[in-house]
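User: Second chain of the day. Same drill as before.
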Amino acid sequence: MFLRLAQQHRQFVKDLVMNLQALATVLENRGYLASCYTCGSQMNSASFMVSLGDNHLIRFLVSDYGITWTEMRDDRELMKLEGAEAISQLQDLANLVKYHIEPSPSGREQSKASVRQMHVS
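Assistant: Same format as last time:
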């Protein structure tokens, strides 16, 4: 039973890493500064980052050891979540793509606020 659960967890992490890579690519194509780095070819960990402008940065780390979402502004940590809560925050970023919200030099924060408002509705 535990070997099966360990294998399922490894597959879950691999799927999450692949989705983070895709999200980074799409966000980058939409004009956001985004990246996703992995260690090695086994896809068992990743570091995902996206800049929402005005010194507003999202960092998402995933590995066999845990999952962390950190939101920062002006190099100060605003929010840090782990596990399922961290994964849920990725939906806000996915909504940037889904609703075709484009960044602008002065409007990136407005776009983020719009996404949060849509997420609450």
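The chain has one domain: 2-120.

User: Great, on to the next one.
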